[in-house]
């Protein structure tokens, strides 16, 4: 527990603090929204190499913004990405920036990304995905919540201190990448390379690439990892007419469907041997913690529009969302996927599926388990087609200690801005870089989300609410002040 | 058997016939190829409603061509197509044309279509699919073989008689449609409506919408039908992030894969109850006939690029290609189908699969068998997602008597042009209109292919060889002459 004096001083500070900073943020709201609009307008879809010029432009815009604020900015070349056809394409550079270098202050490093998931109007968006559209205070646009607004909120935080001519209470560094949605290709090596330079004076790493669980603000202390697989079945040398050849050819699509159907049972049980056995058991303490979290199953169901979930009680549901693995089949490349009908036997089909990783799973082991299993299942079919299983992403899970001072500071900042205790939650998704930061730098990490629980990340109609964007900026301002009080490691 | 005199007269005729007509055809080869190039340039993909203007233009071009030749041409309005969103779009009009109306002559009606399957360069075409490209005498282009060149070969046939100022030996009618690749939507009703008008004086119907089995010319006496299904599984109201929601949601894609995997076994056995029982047994006579057909399994395998087929002997292979049903899973709409990775749980996925129909299957019964089966398999999964199975095409198989005079005339024409006996073959694909013509008009039908065995219908790099196009035109010229000798029904 903290001494009472700390809270009294903090409370006194808050009165002044709130007045200056929060008023400043409120009065600059429209400017913040306009910047977000400019950023969302850049289709920085890192999964589509044809969009790579937009990704490069997004990194340049980010660097220019930080440069204009007087930061010490670098655009770090992290090499090239190898494409399936053997060609290469340049990776978006990583932006690093530094504001302040006072050795007597704490140094935080804010991580974020400015690349986005794919989005097309015809996927079912109500508005143009790259034209930020304000509907009742919700700002709709691809990447608004994941992760452009949170990155901007951190930038606005530094701007606010600067505008009010008040020294930053901590040194602030930024590391902003453009490949997060596609596995943060190249970033790990860059972090390793700069371990003793850029990261040498960093005390804490802050990540705001996640969201709240409910309307209650939250701090996130764990994420699942992700092993993403391609399973390719190749048969005839080209697509065939299903009338002319159907019945004579062993069809790759039938083989692929057959092996995909052995991954997971209808009740959600992973059928790949060894996966479930590796999962850390659920402790009583954990069970109790889940039990206390504010989470309304009915509103969760209604939000996603389903009548029934995989589990009907809160603990099972949260546990399977955060601390158990799962298999998702995302789709199949190479088969007929358009509207209407086509009488084709696809010659080569590639299933995309992924397995979320949790402690104590190891991606290297999972890769072997999945590959061995699928090859053995496929062998039983006695098909002449060729199966190739590859793991293209292998991201580890991450778990923090919620009693660390960094989290205590987070709780205090949330209390200050929102006047509630935050929920302590985990994230079902993956922020693989958290694990890398931890492993390489050995520094403590906190995840401090400002995105809403209903922001629709990775799906149609992604949005960031004005409320979360603006109050989130205030939270970051308050948090830097809290971190300044922490004892240097 | 025909009287010897017939063959003697025919032989005498051939000497003159060959000289005039065949020389004319040979000397107009470049003109024919240019017309085919103009036709292939129109992207008349009937499956894509956005391409509908091209389909309309293709029908207009066809009508104009026939009109310019002095035919009595009509563009018949066959109504509208209903789209999934409830809107409607005009169907391509059907072109009918008539050359000659001498009641003392036989009247043949040539059926063809000028719409095509989808094609994109990036599907793996070596040349632009809508730019007819001559490589070593092979004319590559979407729709070249299926069915634009055969339709043009029939048009060139009439042109040749006209150019040489020789009366057509039979009256020739044309019925050319623009929706064949999408189930000949609207054509059945049009044929029924014109049964006692356009079709009243038709004696025989000729279809050249198929191909040879080997390098040996062939006559086709049977086709499989096709029941094309959509199986839609709908879950959440929108796509979800697989990290954030994976493990809590019963995923539509998992359900869909699960039910698709129950359609057919790895060894090609259809698992839907009742389907196999409906198939007419293979007779000894049929077995013997298949045994005699020229068919080289090794070259078939090497052509499609597989090391092993579903069956290793000729009779099983031909039988399963022509006279047994099969299931093909064409693809899935709504799932992630692009290159790269996307961590999405698709909210609504629609599988496209089809079952080839053979005697004595009945599409109405098959519809019920498939629907009942899939609903029962799905029910066992106890999924809250919604399954909707619809049959969007229900085309019956067709079978002709190879001893009919129409086929004898065909054999004679093949002998005349190619100096070989044709193979008598069936077609694994579907030309549903054959069954309709038979059922509605009661007239005899012959299928007289000119396309090569390796034309790549419905797949990448479709082509029509110059040889088949030009010699095929000669075959049609010879055939009209043979038909003129048939006794009127």
Automatic annotation (TrEMBL), chains A, B:
One of its GO terms (molecular function) is carboxypeptidase activity. CDD domains: M20_dipept_like_CNDP. Mn(2+) 2 binds at residues 113, 146, 209. It comes from the Eukaryota. GO terms for cellular component: cytosol. PANTHER family: BETA-ALA-HIS DIPEPTIDASE. This is Peptidase M20 dimerisation domain-containing protein. It comes from Oncorhynchus tshawytscha.
């Amino acid at each position: 527990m903290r001494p009472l004096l700390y809270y009294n001083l903090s409370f006194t500070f808050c009165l002044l603090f709130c007045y200056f900073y929060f008023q400043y943020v409120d009065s600059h709201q429209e400017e913040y929204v306009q910047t977000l609009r400019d950023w969302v307008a850049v289709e920085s879809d890192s999964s589509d190499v044809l969009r790579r010029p937009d990704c490069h432009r997004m990194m340049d815009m980010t660097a220019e913004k930080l440069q204009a604020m007087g930061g010490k900015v670098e655009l770090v070349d992290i090499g090239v990405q190898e494409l399936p056809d053997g060609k290469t394409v340049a990776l978006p550079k990583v932006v690093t920036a530094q504001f302040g270098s006072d050795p007597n202050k704490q140094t935080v490093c804010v991580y974020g990304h400015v690349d986005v998931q794919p989005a097309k109007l015809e996927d079912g968006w109500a508005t143009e995905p790259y034209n930020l559209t304000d509907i009742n205070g919700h700002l709709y646009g691809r990447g608004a919540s994941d992760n452009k607004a949170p990155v901007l909120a951190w930038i606005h935080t530094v701007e606010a201190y600067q505008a009010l001519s008040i020294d930053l209470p901590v040194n602030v560094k930024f590391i902003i990448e453009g490949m997060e949605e596609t596995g943060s290709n190249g970033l790990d090596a860059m972090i390793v390379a700069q371990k003793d330079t850029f990261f040498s004076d960093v005390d804490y790493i802050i990540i705001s690439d996640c969201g709240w669980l409910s309307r209650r603000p939250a701090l996130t202390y764990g994420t699942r990892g992700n092993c993403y697989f391609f399973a390719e079945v190749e048969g005839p040398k080209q697509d065939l007419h299903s009338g002319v050849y159907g019945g004579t050819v062993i069809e790759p699509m039938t083989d692929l469907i057959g092996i995909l159907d052995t991954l997971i049972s209808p009740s959600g049980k992973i059928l790949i041997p060894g996966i479930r056995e590796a999962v850390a058991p659920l402790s009583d303490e954990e069970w109790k913690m889940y039990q206390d979290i504010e989470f309304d199953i009915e509103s969760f169901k209604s939000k996603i529009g389903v009548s029934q979930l995989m589990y009907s009680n809160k603990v099972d549901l949260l546990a399977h969302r955060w601390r158990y693995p799962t298999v998702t089949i995302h789709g199949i490349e190479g088969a007929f996927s358009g509207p209407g009908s086509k009488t084709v036997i696809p010659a080569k089909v590639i299933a995309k599926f992924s397995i979320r990783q949790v402690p104590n799973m190891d991606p290297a082991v999972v890769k072997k388990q999945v590959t061995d299993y699928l090859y053995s299942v496929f062998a039983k079919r006695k098909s002449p087609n060729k199966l190739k299983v590859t793991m293209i992403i292998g991201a580890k899970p991450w778990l923090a200690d919620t009693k660390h001072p960094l989290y205590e500071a987070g709780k205090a900042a949330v209390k200050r801005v929102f006047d509630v205790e935050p929920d302590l939650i985990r994230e079902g998704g993956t922020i693989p870089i958290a694990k890398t930061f931890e492993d390489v730098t050995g520094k403590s990490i906190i995840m401090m989300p400002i995105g809403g629980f209903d922001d629709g990340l990775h799906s149609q109609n992604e949005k960031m609410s004005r409320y979360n964007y603006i109050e989130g900026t205030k939270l970051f301002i308050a948090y830097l002040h809290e971190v300044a009080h922490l004892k240097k490691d």
